[in-house]
Amino acid sequence: xxxxxxxxxxxxxxxxxxxxxxxxxxxxxxxxxxxxxxxxxxxxxxxxxxxxxxxxxxxxxxxxxxxxxxxxxxxxxxxxxxxxxxxxxxxxxxxxxxxxxxxxxxxxxxxxxxxxxxxxxxxxxxxxxxxxxxxxxxxxxxxxxxxxxxxxxxxxxxxxxxxxxxxxxxxxxxxxxxxxxxxxxxxxxxxxxxxxxxxxxxxxxxxxxxxxxxxxxxxxxxxxxxxxxxxxxxxxxxxxxxxxxxxxxxxxxxxxxxxxxxxxxxxxxxxxxxxxxxxxxxxxxxxxxxxxxxxxxxxxxxxxxxxxxxxxxxxxxxxxxxxxxxxxxxxxxxxxxxxxxxxxxxxxxxxxxxxxxxxxxxxxxxxxxxxxxxxxxxxxxxxxxxxxxxxxxxxxxxxxxxxxxxxxxxxxxxxxxxxxxxxxxxxxxxxxxxxxxxxxxxxxxxxxxxxxxxxxxxxxxxxxxxxxxxxxxxxxxxxxxxxxxxxxxxxxxxxxxxxxxxxxxxxxxxxxxxxxxxxxxxxxxxxxxxxxxxxxxxxxxxxxxxxxxxxxxxxxxxxxxxxxxxxxxxxxxxxxxxxxxxxxxxxxxxxxxxxxxxxxxxxxxxxxxxx
Length: 611
Prior knowledge:
By secondary structure, this protein is mostly beta strands. Helices cover 2% and strands 38% of the residues. It contains two helices and 37 strands. The protein has helices spanning 209-219, 229-232, and strands at residues 20-21, 43-48, 65-74, 77-85, 95-101, 111-114, 131-135, 140-142, 148-157, 165-173, 183-187, 254-257, 263-266, 271-275, 286-287, 299-302, 308-312, 324-329, 334-342, 359-363, 377-383, 387-393, 405-407, 421-425, 431-434, 443-448, 456-464, 466-475, 483-488, 496-500, 505-510, 513-519, 525-533, 539-544, 547-554, 562-568, 599-610. The chain has an eleven-stranded mixed sheet with strand order 20-21-22-2-24-27-36-29-30-31-32, with no helix packed on it. Strands 23, 25, 26, 28, 33, 34, 35 and 37 form an eight-stranded antiparallel sheet that branches. The protein has a five-stranded mixed sheet with strand order 1-19-18-17-16, with no helix packed on it. A hairpin with a 2-residue loop joins strand 3 and strand 4 (77-85). It starts with 19 loop residues before the first strand and ends with a strand. Residues 1-8 have low confidence and may be disordered.
């Protein structure tokens, strides 16, 4: 029998190819940001900075393996929970902690929600395992009557899946911030765990009928419980998804409803499947050839503008999971416009087994688990499996800006969102709208007391070969810290470079030559004006307080246009990169837990025109 050529081609949108990426953008593996454009206005905020020797600055324990973050919005605030262990992944003890925030920017100190597991007397660790651990693919469930359940999975180290699992636990979070008792909601189907040989009762024993009903509701939800699948795989037939091949790469699904009503499940390693009956049955998971990703998670969702977004690490190197991107779709099938959500990868301060570099295991807010008041999309992940983060992604997602820029920050809320700016703000290098020099005359404040990271603010503007920029900068000090001001093209090249240096010198680069153009005074505003010819043999003029200090200076890198200006409290970095050893044991970085002398810079009156 002869088959037509068309019969051998996957039809996009069907079970043969549930989704497809059609864009031309791919991540350049030689640079941390992949040489991709930014999704305009994304705000990266660190919610936890691991600290081994000063645990009071972090989680209270000093544990430095932090991973698998999840997010919900309930009772007017965000909830983030994550796994934590002392040093290594899948090495006991491992617990789950919970943080909350009213605005997604300022987060409360973590509290333990699921402690390290302690078996009942007489119950021994099974042969072949070394201890107990918490694991999780799902974090939360908001019931129809408004209860918030938080969940996790107890198993054995070093492999908590299938025979190594014990079961999934649940407890309720109350509006006053307290928690209900811990219960098992489902035991693994691969072993005979039950109330007699585990440490917590079965949820049916709860005296709270509403809690029991909320658990029953969750157990009946074939979409929510799909997230549990790869820890158990359901020998008892509990899961509607089937995988006869027992493919270990079919893990950690996210899901969303497409415009045509079908449900898409996105798995690790570029796999996807479809359901047309709300998760009661699923098509075979197939590898989507246009999605390039390692063993990190893939997040998909419908956004508030009626479109769709997918977020993952677009690189096929398991230990180097950067950058984190988003791409968008009109129908949840055809995706385009890959752009950056999180491009920064600081040095890993603490070695640990399987602590991959970069933003790992991205997750958003699962359908039904709350809706923040703004139109933004919220994502969570950990960086280097060490520090916890959230990102606010403005919707609609866009990568370009049209027209002039005139930002004086006066209409923005103090400590609120910085509209149209891309913000990278570690805990020890915050970026905020400040009432400085006055409540009526605000500015953008960058502070840095982290020797291994920096604060960064980027303003995307209209792409052009000719650009004129004006802005003011004030340094609180002139003997500590630095501020790099750079112009970038769409690929991240840096043709124009200025610096407020820690030696009190204001510097600029003429090609590869560093030039001191002035000494700067702490507490004084400086007015800059740049006139840039962004061409292969281009140049720029630099004015300082109205005086031309560089004329026809050579660009540091050849470009054909520019489209963003970057303010950064540390030097450019591209380490770790994909040649940096990931699993070579090393001591903590010197002074990793210590704050350095703070340096603060203010930016104001940013005006940009380009053509």
